[in-house]
Request: fold
Amino acid sequence: MAGIEVLVGLTSALAALGAAELAVHRRRLRSIPIRVHVNGTRGKSSVTRLIAAGLREGGIRTCAKTTGTLARMILPDGTELPIYRPTGPNIIEQRRIVALAAAHDADALVIECMALQPQLQSLCELELIQSTHGVVTNARPDHLEVMGPKPRDVARALAGTTPVRGKLFLAAEEHRDVFEHAARDRRSEIVVTEPCDEASALVGFSYTEHPSNVGVALAVCEELGVARDTALEGMWKAKPDPGAMTERQVEFFGRPITFINGFAANDPVSTRQ
Reply:
């Protein structure tokens, strides 16, 4: 009987501790008025960096977190910190990121979705981030063993990060009806963005940035009150993600060789592009 009482006591204590942690996390979320959750098959890290840089340039105190080639926390002054993962990647680390952003008095947090499992993508949005603005860069056939088996299933999984009563910025051309359904279900507005094809805008980057990434990032910044030219200035200054596509010219025994770093494009559609 005593053992049962101890077990009940421990269970109650753990439940109380969990409730207290949840309350603290939600209070921290409320202290950050702008929360942008970036999802998609490719380009999440780059778009996260672009939006954060544009908001910083516009005077909005912004933290950001990427999960791509190298996970990084980006502070309001642009300083980057590596993400320490003693037990490997885990979506619970998003709570630490929210806590750090709140500790830096951030007015905005731009955060890349790190979940693959469809249920966890939705959990990240509904419990961990509760975004005011969502972004989907694209919905391509990748990680089909987790999000598939069909490409349309990938879109359904990505739609799990649609905000509740917020705005979803959609650069994805694929399966738009899936995202429209998710937006209706969560009472959010969809903003379909167009690629930024202006040469004058793209020439300012020190690396190859995709027009669709720039287009959706500019749309988010303008929605949040940052002028287009101001946001672009910030984006040009931003440090590229380690996985961003770069091009290098080298001489090899008198022969010019072009090396293109496209290793982050690891799905068939992105590789062809």
About this structure: The domain at 22-243 is CATH 3.40.1190.10 (UDP-N-acetylmuramoyl-L-alanine:D-glutamate ligase).
